[in-house]
Design brief:
The structure is a single chain. The protein is α/β, with parallel strands linked by helices. Helix content is about 45%, strand content about 15%. The protein is built from 17 helices and 14 strands. Strands 1-11-10-9-12-13 form a six-stranded parallel beta sheet, with helices on both faces. The chain has a five-stranded parallel beta sheet with strand order 6-5-4-7-8, with helices on both faces. Strands 2-3-14 form a three-stranded antiparallel beta sheet. Strand 12, helix 14 and strand 13 form a beta-alpha-beta unit. Helix 5 packs across helix 7.
Length: about 450
């Protein structure tokens, strides 16, 4: 018997109960997860491929002779897909590429003061690691969302890791999507061990500078661990179990709302969905509709557990609905209200926003063009969704002429002495003195 969505009246909750209503399930075990993931990371860092083989056999239940995907497996993967599937992958790559090509940053060049030239150069990251989950379901769409901006940014080394299947192969659709996006180095590795392999490098897996991609709580914990280590690799963002918050008023269709909630709930048992509505009638109808639709879904066992940790929150008006949403800071925010664009300006914290009844979150997951790698756990308060800018560095340059230093150098010297940094001031003074001497010669 499934646990129905809990219906809570937000105005009747005190602050403690409100915080509990918006708590993510995975956060409750964060400290324990970090400790356990840390042990895996340390083992891979110290023992490399040997540790990878042991963890792959223990956790993925397969023993691999080689982690790398070879030409024969790539060919078999393409042969395994239908023409319709191949066309869908190509169409999604096209729409995602077109939106991301608009995100390319341009160099800047400005003379901020006479004789003082400042520039900003755009430099692609040298080596990037892309993680594509495949635990409860393979995600070729994630391969597209990671590989497309990496290619557009011009990163010369692009490594992709994805968990092996029980037969020792990687998911064919993931392999084909990656190859269509120009990824040549793919390794059959999953979980915290894959993150560690890319962060530190092994005999098989190249070391990268930054790791991208969503995953379960183990992957998220491992990314946090290696990013805190100077020997490791930076992370894109905290991107763990999926989540969605739907704001709906009385005009929303219960079958649409329920379908959007279930679309995220089926990702994993620790996914979370939240409905915030101004209508008690709609809330009751959506709870019933979730039960009805869930009964016929193939991933019902996973979905039921996810729904058990989810909520329906009743609020008096849309103003409060937006307050609740901004506090929760969802990965995905769906506005199923009468005039959704009118409320867009009130959204402050969300990874990606979906406007209106005809914009299911599924479109953003696959092919609308936006990126589906988004911050979770409430990190949308400070992080943005993935884009081309995440795959480049913005490096500044300055060049000062003697005339420019003579004009602006005294300002720098005064400020240096204001901070009691006399060596800083001297670096300017010695040049000003040289300029003066040479002008008199």
């Amino acid at each position: 018997m499934s646990v129905p969505l809990a219906l809570l009246d937000w105005t009747a909750l005190d602050e403690t109960k409100r915080a509990a209503a918006l708590e993510r399930p995975a956060q409750r075990e964060a400290a324990s997860l970090l400790e356990r993931a840390g042990r895996i990371v340390a083992e891979v860092r110290e023992r490399g491929d040997a540790a990878l083989r042991e963890y792959t056999e223990q956790l993925d239940r397969v023993r691999l002779g080689s982690f790398a995907v070879g030409p024969a497996e790539f060919a078999a993967a393409e042969a395994a897909l239908t023409d319709e599937q191949l066309e869908a992958l190509r169409r999604a790559i096209d729409t995602v590429s077109r939106f991301h090509e608009l995100q390319v940053l341009e160099p800047l060049r400005l003379e901020t003061s006479p004789g003082v030239l400042c520039e900003r150069l755009i430099v692609p990251l040298g080596a990037v690691g892309l993680y594509v989950p495949a635990g409860t379901a393979p995600l070729p769409s994630t391969a597209i969302m990671l590989a497309v901006p990496a290619r557009i940014a011009g990163c010369p080394v692009r490594v992709l890791c994805t968990p092996p299947r029980p037969d020792g192969t990687a998911d064919p659709a993931v392999l084909v999507a990656a190859r269509l996006c120009g990824i040549g180095q793919i390794f059959k590795l999953g979980g915290a061990q894959a993150v560690a392999a890319m962060a530190y490098g092994t005999a098989s897996v190249p070391k990268v500078d930054k790791i991208f991609g969503p995953g379960n709580s183990w992957v998220t914990a491992a990314k946090q661990i290696v990013s805190a280590d100077a020997r490791g690799a930076a992370l894109d963002m905290p991107a763990g179990p999926s989540e969605v918050l739907v704001i709906a008023d009385g005009s929303a269709r219960p079958e649409f709302v329920a379908a959007d909630l279930l679309a995220q709930a089926e990702h994993s048992e620790d996914a979370q969905v939240v409905l915030v509505t101004t209508s008690r009638e709609l809330a009751v109808a959506c709870i019933a509709e979730v039960e009805r639709q869930m009964a016929v879904l193939p991933r019902r066992a996973i979905t039921e557990r996810s729904i058990g940790g989810s909520r329906v929150l009743l609020v008096p008006d849309l103003d409060m609905a937006l307050e609740v949403s901004n506090r929760y800071a969802p990965e995905h925010l769906i506005l199923q209200v009468a005039e959704p664009r009118a409320w867009l300006g009130r959204v402050r914290n969300a990874g990606s926003v979906f406007l209106g009844a005809w914009t299911p979150e599924t479109m953003g997951d696959y092919c609308s063009g936006t990126n589906h790698v988004l911050p979770t756990y409430g990190h949308a308060r400070a992080y943005s969704g993935l884009g081309v800018a995440d795959f480049v560095k913005r490096m500044t340059v300055q060049e000062v002429t003697p005339a420019g230093l003579a004009d602006l150098g005294r300002t720098a010297r005064t400020l240096a002495r204001l901070e009691s940094l006399e060596a800083h001031a001297h670096a300017v003074s010695v040049r000003l003195a040289a300029i003066e001497r040479e002008s008199l010669a």
